[in-house]
Each structure stands twice: as structure tokens, then as C-alpha cells.
Amino acid sequence: MSEQTRDYVLGEHPELPAPDQRSGFVKWAMENLFSSIGNSVVTIVGLYILYLVIPPFIQWAIIDSVVLGAESRRECQAINPDGACWAFIYRRWDQFVYGFYPAPERWRVNLSFVFVAIIIAIALVEKLRAIKGAIWVALALVAACAILIVGGMFGLDRVPTNKFGGFMLTLIIGLTGIFASLPIGIVLALSRLSSLPIFSIFATIFIEFIRGVPLITLLFIASTLLSYFLPPGTNFDLLVRVLIMVTLFSAAYLAEVIRGGLAAIPRGQYEAADALGLSYWKSMRLIILPQALKISIPGIVSSFIGLFKDTTLVLIIGLLDPLGIGQAAIADVKWIALSNELYVFIALFFFVFCFSMSRYSLYLERKLHTGHKR
Amino acid sequence: MSVSDVSEKAPSSLGAMWRDKKTRAIIMQIVAVIAVLLFFGWLVNNTVSNIENLGIKVGFDFLWNTASYDINQTLIDYTANDTHFRAGLVGLLNTLLVAVCGVILATILGFSAGVARLSNNFVLSRLMQVYVEAVRNVPVLLQILLWYGIILHSFPRVKAAEPIIEGVIATNRGLFLPQPLPQDGFGWVWIAFFAGIIGSFFFRRYAKKALDSTGKQLPVLWASLGLIIGLPIIVYFLMGQPLGVSMPELKGFNYKGGFAIKPEFLALWLALSIYTGAFIAEIVRAGILSVSHGQSEAAHALGIKPSLTMRLVVVPQALRVIIPPLISQYLNLTKNSSLAIAIGYMDIVATLGGISLNQSGRALEIMLIILSVYLFLSLSISGVMNIYNERVKLVER
């Protein structure tokens, strides 16, 4: 290119090659896959890796797999020794979903799943949210779920929380943490940025402490140490203790995300709110927080995803989340050492949830983007 | 005259005091302090009465009792006759070991994947996207267990294992590698190595001075590499190759000799690095994309070579965006290493918080130690990060 420019003599036209006539896939492939020798090598190596990984995985997970008609690992291997033994998941499905929730009472969990779906729909779909009273319906459904699952009221038998397990437990911990930690996180962020030094100091100490230690140590405290700190004789439920710890943990991380959002709001917005004569809380609620929360959406959602993934840690203090159920199941002689099947299955569950959350946050980001960005 | 000046004249009633912004702020803060003090007083009070009621002994003296349990991976000498304190120290070193190794591998993986995701090559960028999305959306505990499961169940048994290359054997009991054994005189190679580092530092300063005064560029990179790598190699051969190798050999039921990487460490290291690497890849990608296109265009307009543009214009600006979240990922990796307890890697949570706690029953003291250790690590690293941030911060207006 540069040589041709240099060779250009006034009045004479350089003989450039004709424009590329190729189009469609060939052109795209030439530009994106084989534009240079190095690029071609990378493409071929990449495709070869895909060839090495994908066909054997499909062979193992789908073609050679055994889903029905096997009662144990031995029978699975008798049918097809090379494939995945999904029969294990199939036979233990109820445990993976409900844990040890008593079988005759499982309709209560199923009904709660439906309610949760409605609550999530109200929270996410704008048209539903706009209906008057929708928020009260959602709150009533939350209460209904709690009553249904725990029981002990309205003629429902009480189910002890140590029977909870499986995906149901993951959803209980994850959703409670998500919904409870957001308000606490907002309050923490506001107090950390508050002009009142005492509030700011307390919030900073709390946030830095929680963020400085691993969740697992906090869960250990919840499970072993909390009884020291409470009046003698009090003994409250392990699940409640875990819920409190998970919520506080997530709130501290959310507070930092929201603090970033608050700091990004131009000074003029605060001043304008003051100039309008709004009180602190009104200016926050009407002017600052809507903008700050909007720009922190990606961070908020990724911290929700983190919280959802962290629910697996409860297995270490003996709660039976799907991973805990599965660990117990692969210790069973009948299904011994089927760890790959187990982990692939649970990974898929988490992937579906977390990936859809992250896609939703991208969608929301685009939708709420009101065009201040250049 | 401001509003508060007006109200200062007549704070006659409680209501007026409450309406005054300054007084209200002071009242609210005093109330908050009292509430927090009362809460902690209540906690301490409960703890004291609980300890009295249950007759639990309190104190850190148990740290000097015999631990009487074995640890399968130790960086310092340790036997079951050593104290709980030493067991905790072994655990802490194991935590730091996996954290440091993890940070190194995660950085390499993350930077390569982050740059590769921005590649024009469709296959490569898509592959990296799949890696990032698949790994980020699956719990790290599950990944640790998955890797451990793969090593235990899918790696060959010790008897059946074939060496991958001479002296490197992957089995379900771990990875066995040849171990270099320094002999007399190897110390000189180390000395040459450090001398090379110091020498390259001085050469850099000299080259900078030469550049500033004469405008002549000296080959800093090659000279540094020569000093740091070449010098020790020359000394090594001059000293008559003072390095033996201990090869792993199959004796009885296991390999003896050589250098063994335990499956627990391997699983934890791989899982943490791959997991954190995916996050780092996103950070790196965002950092590079954050450098405005005008910057590289301006560099091209000034006639700076593309390779130098990347090094002198894009990367320094991208690093400013990359470093803070990168450090917080390093911290996350260190904290996530506490999940080691799930597969029996003996880090500080597994030694002190696991077996020592069960043996001595000193939950309060042990959790205090563990929390302080993690807090110290986190706060010191974030302190360093804040200093760095101050230094690279853009000075505006």
C-alpha cells in the first residue's frame, strides 16, 4: 500500500488489483478465518479441538447414554459400558428436586414453584408490573410460599427445615438472598457515602469485614459459633442462620456495586435535587437512586449470579443442596463413583439459571439505556 | 445567612431541635453509636454467660498442644507430634501456595483468553466466548469437585499409568515429575540469576538516560533477557552442570522419588485458575475495549509502529482499567481457595478450622484466627491496590 502511494506519479494511475469479487460465505471465511497463515493455523487448530471434544461428548452424553431401564451402575454398564448413566439422575430425580421433603406434601413445593414463577414474572415483565396492586399480589404470594413450604399453619403439617434439599433449597436460599440483600445493600451503600461520619464508619467496617473473609468461614460461624453469641438456650433453625449470613454477605458486595453507581452520578444531580428543596430521602428515592441503580445493573446482576452459585457452599456445613444430595448418592454402592454424570447434570442446572440471568441483564441494560453514552 | 443560622437562635423545644439539620445529625449518630454498643454488649454478655454456663476454657494455650494428625502436603517440616500452631502454619502456607500458583496460571489464562476473544478469527473468539460463559456460570465448588472427580476416576491407576514423556507420569494419585537436585556449586547459578536481575535493572536506567540524552534506543528487552537467563546458564556450564535429577520410579504401590503434585492440589489449582481466568478474560477484554479508538488512531497518525502502539499507547491506558478488578479477582481466588476443605486439600480452613477445631473444641479462638488471617490478606492487598490506584489515576482538571 505505502509503496504504491510512493510510486504514484502525477498523471499516471497505479495498477491496483481489481476489487475482491468473492461474496457470501467464501468472502466471510477468507476475511475471518483464513486472512493470513497464522490465522489459518489458529482456525484449523480450533476446529480440531472442537472435533476432539464435541463428538466424543455427544457420543457419551446422548448416543451411548442410558436413561431408562437401569437400577444400578452395573445395569447401566451392562446396557452400554461407554455411555453416561443418566438412569442415576432419573431414579433420584425426586431427591434432586425436593430433598427429603415428605412425598405426600410435595404438592406444596410444586404450588410454590408456580407462585415463584408468577412473582418473577411480575418482577420482570413491565406490563404485569404496571397493573395496579401487582406488587401486593407478589408480596402475598411470597408469604403464601413461605407458609406452604414451612407449614404449621392453616392445617398444613409443619415440615422441619432439615428435610429441605435439592433444587428447592437452592432456590430458597438464592431467591431469599437476592430479594433480601438488595434493600440492605442500598442502605449500606447510602450510609457508606453518608456525610454523617459515624454511619459511614460503621458501614465501611461492616462491608470491608464481610468482603475480606470467605463465605465459608461465615457459614461456619453460622453453624457452630452463633450459639455462643445468643442468650443461653436459644436455638434457632440452621437454615434461617444460613439465610441471614448469605443475605448479609451478598448485601456487602451489592453495597460496593451500588456505591460505584452512586459515585458515577454527576454532582449536578445531587445539587439539582437540593435546589428543588427535596429532603435527603426524597432526593435519593426520586433523583439519585433510579439513576444509580440503572447504571449498576450489570454489577448487581453479576453479584446475584455469584450469590446463586455460592448457595452450593451450604453442602460443607451439611445442608443438602443438589450437590450435597448428589455426593451422598454417588457414595451409594448402587451408583458408586458416577461423579461425571452428577457434576455435568448440576452444572447444566446452574448454567441455565445463571446464563439466563446474565442475558436478562444485558437486555435490561440495552432497554434502560437512555442515550447518555457517546 | 444560611438556614441553620436561623434555627440556632431558637432551639427551644425538642421539635425544633429535630427540625435542625445539624442537631438532628448529631442526635442520630449518638443513637446509632449507642445502638451498636448495646448490640455488641449484648453479644459479649451472652458469650461470657454461655462460656461460664458450659464451663468452656478460653485462651490460645491449646495452640501449643500436640496436634496428632497428619497432613499429606507440607511445605515445612511437620509431623503428627507437632503443635496445632505448626499445623495452622502448614495450612496457611498451603493456602498461600495454591493462591500464588492459581494467580499465576489464572493471569496467563485470563490474559490469553481476553486477547483471543477480541481476535478477528471467528473460531478463536467464539471458542473463548464459550470458555468464558461456560465457566463463569457454574459454581466454583462444583468445578473443584469435577476436576477432583476427573483426576480420581478418569486418570490411570498407578500400576497402569504410562509416562507422558520421560519422567512425567499422570496418575490418579497425582502428577509425578522429575525433580532437579541442586548439588555443590549450584548456589552460584542463583547468585548469577539475581545478579542478572540487578544488572538488567541498572541497564534499563542507563538505556533510559541514553534515550533521553541522545534519542538512541538500546535493545533493553534482549539485554535484560540475556542477563537474567543467559548469565545463569553460562555460570551453570562453567560450574560443570551441578544439577542432578531425581526421576519418579514405580516402587511397590506408588511412585518414589521425583516431585509429586498431589491430586487435591492439582484439582484445586486447575479449578480455581480456570474459574478465575474466565473472569480475568472479561476484565482484560473490557479494559482493552475501554481505550478509545481515537487513541490508537492518533498513534498511527504520529507514525508509531502497530506493535509499539499496543505497548506504549493502548496497554498502559487499558491497565488502568484492568488492574483494580484484577486485584479483586486475585483476592476472590485466595478466598475461594478455602473451598479446599471439600476435597481434603489441607489449607488453613481444613487444618486449623477442621481437625484442630474438632480436637480442641476451641471454635471461638480458631474462627478468630482464621478470620484475622483472611482479613489481613485482603486488607493488605487492597491497601496496595489503593496506593497503585492513586499513582495511575488520571489527573483531571
Describe the structure.
Chain B: Keywords: Amino-acid transport, Cell membrane, Membrane, Transmembrane, Transmembrane helix, Transport. Chain B: Pfam families: BPD_transp_1. Chain B: Its main location: membrane. Chain B: It is a multi-pass membrane protein. Chain B: Belongs to the binding-protein-dependent transport system permease family. HisMQ subfamily. The complex is a heterodimer of chains A (374) and B (397). Chain A is an all-alpha fold. Helices cover 70% and strands 0% of the residues of chain A. Chain A is built from 18 helices and no strands. Chain A is flat, with a radius of gyration of 28 Å. Chain B is mainly alpha-helical and 397 residues long. Chain B has two domains: 3-54, no CATH class; 84-178 and 247-392, MetI-like (MetI-like fold, Orthogonal Bundle). Chain B has helices spanning 3-8, 14-19, 21-54, 84-117, 122-136, 140-154, 186-214, 220-238, 263-290, 293-301, 306-336, 348-360, 363-392; strands at 169-171, 174-177, 179-182, 243-246, 249-251, 254-256, 259-261. In chain B, the strands form three sheets. In chain B, strands 1-2-7 form a three-stranded antiparallel β-sheet. Chain B has a two-stranded antiparallel sheet with strand order 3-4. In chain B, strands 5-6 form a two-stranded antiparallel ribbon. In chain B, a hairpin with a 2-residue loop joins β5 (249-251) and β6 (254-256). In chain B, α5 packs across α9. The two termini of chain B are 31 Å apart. In chain B, 28% of the residues are buried. Residues 1-9 of chain B have low confidence and may be disordered. At the A-B interface, α3, α11, α12, α16 and α18 of A face α3, α5, α6, α12 and α13 of B.
How do you describe this structure in short?
Chain A is mainly α and 374 residues long.
Topology (SSEs and partners):
The complex is a heterodimer of chains A (374) and B (397).
Chain A: H1 2-7, H2 24-32, H3 37-63, H4 73-79, H5 87-91, H6 93-98, H7 106-124, H8 126-130, H9 134-150, H10 166-192, H11 197-212, H12 215-229, H13 238-264, H14 267-275, H15 280-295, H16 297-310, H17 322-329, H18 339-368
Helix pairs in contact in A: 7-9, 10-11, 10-13, 10-16, 10-17, 11-13, 12-13, 13-15, 13-16, 14-15, 16-18, 17-18
Chain B: H1 3-8, H2 14-19, H3 21-54, H4 84-117, H5 122-136, H6 140-154, E1 169-171, E2 174-177, E3 179-182, H7 186-214, H8 220-238, E4 243-246, E5 249-251, E6 254-256, E7 259-261, H9 263-290, H10 293-301, H11 306-336, H12 348-360, H13 363-392
